[in-house]
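Bench notes, afternoon.
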Amino acid sequence: MTDHDAPVRFDTKIALLLRDDLETWQRLNVTAFLVSGLGTQVPEVIGEPYADADDTPYLPMFRQPVLVFAGPKELLTTAHGRAVSRGAVRAVFTSGLFATGHDEANRAAVRAVPGNDLDLVGLAVYGPRNAVDKILKGASMHP
C-alpha cells in the first residue's frame, strides 16, 4: 500500500441530514443543493483539480467523504437548533424551495420564515467531527 492509498481520518466532518419522508428525487436534489455552498464558504474542504491519463481537466471535489443521514422532521428542527447554537457552518433546505425556480426566490422563501419555524427537509453541517456528531445525535445513516 502506498501513502496515497492509506486511509485518512479527518478531524472534521461534512454531514447532511435529510428528512426521512422525502421522495427519491427530492433527496437527491436537496443533497446537491446543500453541499453546493460549503466550498464557497469553507475552501479547505475542496481538494485539488482532477485530470485523467489524457490530461483532460476536471473540477476539484470535496477532499473528504460526505456522510448522509436521515431522520424525522422533529430531528431536523432539533439538529438545526444545535447547529445554530454551536455556530456550526450550515446550509438549509426548506420545503418551500421545492416550489421556487431560482436562487433569488429560494433566498426569499427562507428569509420569510423565522429560524425556529423553518419547515426543514435538509440540513448540511461542517465542523469538528465530535461537534457534528453531537449536532446530528439521534440521526441514522441514510439507507
